[in-house]
Write a structure and sequence with these properties.
With about 600 residues, the chain is an alpha/beta fold. The mean pLDDT is about 90.
Length: about 600
């Protein structure tokens, strides 16, 4: 939800922290701040709004210390203003916090009763007061952190320093991600590895209820009781230039254009290009044993990942003949789900840190289900929680609105559906080969669609005149319609709804007039005639149709204000190709309206609390 950066080492912390926060601004941009030990005292600078406001304040500031913490915020408790910006201070204690303290009301009441002056509206400041209250007795930061950890309840990652100990940094977590970067005589604590990848490729991922104690060049890991634990160092091969825009106006546009490569990277580990066959290996399960036993599959995800899961339902049911349920993670957690024996639960999360999805996979395990995660970040919380693992392999995705992670996930779901079908004897060699060949063709088909980019840029002014957008699709195109509507809402802040085209008569027709755009995903498949029939109903009521079809479909083209021809694809891969123009349309419309495409208002990339 928020971004954390901490540094202890020989360099001046200011620039390192600001550089790191820039890489994390996708996680929150309501306010930002840093605190550095300077001349034996804590020097804090905070600013409301985006990080550039903090940078302007820091231009004339200098620091002589070597210990500092920084934060970029997405507001939960308290308005997004400087008063509520992190770092928060209590006495000689400064800290940054990502997450929510659930028992903050009780803590606040107790502190007020003791006469504590609370200066912000956040739950975060209260933790600083607890540590400050305790350290006046212990004069030991580590001991006070351990004492405080037992008093707070919720989902949190916290990084704390004490001005009397300018060579000591402590972090602890129970929920949102927190990662330790191991450098040469310098160490980092960050929410995401990209914040420190410029300086080190060696990272340690903290698990829940773990503490890292950095003192000088010494790094120790322990559990909440202070007992030493052994942690593995993971080498991350991301390069710094993976998070740069590479000449594109926005990260999102760059990531849309990266999709052909992202899909190729996602499928490469699982395809034998000589035989055009699929083999899922090294994912944590013996495929034959697992999939022969499966009676039901549950997909659990949120947002764009949920729409990918809906595509997965069509693929697995039609290819592998296994019943599939899709669940929104936040609903799955609280509806007391019934999990039949021999259930496989598949979670999808780009970051691997989505709070509701993480809680859902834990619940599924408690119910006895087998678990498989699809993430973009190895060693993320969801990845570590699952038994089986598949990776999107897209590289860093900075834009808040997901693009390449979505299409990479769709490609993996094709792979997964075929593998389940193979093990269960539900797919022929010829059909497997056809799907593999279709997947291998997707990158070049995406390149073709991307060549239409300029037309969406030119059409943006006209599109901005519509009062709303109705997205339609049938079969496997229905989730793509939902995803298209979500992208428009996320980026252009316009009313947009996705519907199954067959539901037009059951309410949506009442919305249609000349000011309503009808965006239809209608590739040439076995449902195309029914889709066109639904469009006739919309056109008869004055709706303006924007259609995405296969090749030169004259019937569809004649009905449409705008028509975009897609390359012919197999039904399993049509969604990967069809979603690209919807992404481009949303991007250019939002850019035309002068909105911040990479950082839409009120949204964050990784939702690590409920």
């Amino acid at each position: 939800m928020c971004g954390i950066v901490g540094y202890l080492g020989p360099k001046e912390p200011k620039n390192i922290i600001i550089e790191g926060l820039k890489k994390l601004e996708y996680r929150g941009y309501d306010s930002a701040g840093i605190a550095v030990i300077h001349d034996g005292k804590t020097k804090r600078v905070r600013a409301q709004g985006k990080l550039k406001n903090l940078e302007e304040k820091l231009i004339s500031e200098s620091f002589n210390g070597h210990l500092g913490i920084g934060h970029t915020r997405w507001a939960t408790h308290g308005a997004p203003n400087e008063r509520n910006a992190h770092p928060h201070q209590a006495g000689e204690i400064s800290l940054v916090h990502n997450g929510i303290i659930e028992n903050y009301l009780e803590i606040k009441a107790e502190l007020i009763k003791k006469g504590t002056e609370i200066k912000s509206d956040t739950d975060s400041e209260l933790v600083a007061h607890l540590i400050w209250e305790d350290i006046q007795k212990t004069q030991n930061l580590l001991q006070s952190v351990k004492n405080t950890l037992g008093k707070i309840v919720g989902a949190f990652s916290i990084l704390v320093m004490w001005e009397k100990s300018p060579n000591e940094l402590i972090a602890f977590k129970d929920g949102p991600p927190l990662i330790v970067g191991i450098g040469e005589k310098e160490h980092f604590v960050v929410s995401d590895v990209q914040a420190a990848i410029k300086y080190t490729k060696r990272f340690v991922y903290l698990n829940d209820r773990e503490i890292v104690h950095i003192q000088g060049t010494d790094v120790k890991f322990m559990n909440a009781k202070g007992e030493p634990i052994k942690k593995d160092i993971v080498t991350v091969d991301w390069s710094e230039d993976q998070v740069e825009k590479a000449g594109f106006k926005h990260f999102m546009l760059k990531e849309i254009y990266e999709q052909p490569r992202a899909v190729a990277q996602a499928i490469a580990p699982y395809i034998d290009t000589d035989t055009h066959s699929i083999l899922l290996k090294n994912i944590g399960y013996e495929m034959t044993d697992l999939y022969k036993k499966i009676d039901r599959v549950f997909f659990i995800a949120c947002g764009t990942s949920y729409y990918a899961a809906m595509v997965g339902k069509y693929l697995i049911e039609q290819i592998a003949k296994v019943p599939v349920e899709t669940d929104i993670a936040s609903e799955f957690r609280y509806r007391k789900p019934v999990m039949p024996a021999n259930t496989l639960v598949i979670t999808i999360s780009q970051s691997g840190e989505t709070a509701d999805t993480l809680a859902a996979i834990r619940l599924a395990k408690e119910c006895g289900a087998q678990t498989l995660s699809i993430t973009n970040v190895a060693q993320s919380s969801i990845d570590r929680e699952a038994t089986g693992h598949m990776y999107m392999n897209t590289g860093v995705e900075v834009g808040v609105a997901s693009t390449k992670a979505f299409t990479s996930t769709l490609s993996l779901l094709n792979i997964l559906a075929v593998q389940i079908a193979k093990v269960r004897g539900k797919i022929s060699v010829a059909d497997e080969k056809q799907i593999v060949q279709s997947l291998l063709a997707v990158p070049s088909q995406m390149e073709t669609v991307l060549s239409y980019d300029k037309y969406f840029k030119e059409a943006a002014a006209k599109l901005a005149e519509f009062k709303g957008f109705l997205y339609l699709g049938r079969g496997v195109s229905f989730p793509i319609a939902l995803e298209g509507a979500l992208k428009l809402k996320e980026l252009a802040y316009m009313h947009a709804e996705g519907y199954a085209a067959g539901e037009m008569k059951h309410g949506p027709l009442a919305l249609i007039d000349k000011d309503m755009a009808i965006v239809v995903v209608a590739p040439s498949d076995d449902l195309i005639d029914k889709t066109i029939s639904n469009l006739q109903e919309a056109k008869a009521r004055g709706g303006k149709i924007i259609s995405i079809g296969t090749g030169e479909n004259e019937g569809l083209k004649s009905m449409s204000e705008f028509y975009l021809p897609l390359p012919a694809a197999f039904w399993t891969t049509n969604p990967l190709v069809a979603v690209v123009p919807l992404q481009l349309m949303s991007y250019h419309l939002a850019d035309h309206l002068k909105y911040d495409v990479d950082q839409p208002r009120n949204l964050a990339k990784s939702v690590t609390v409920e």
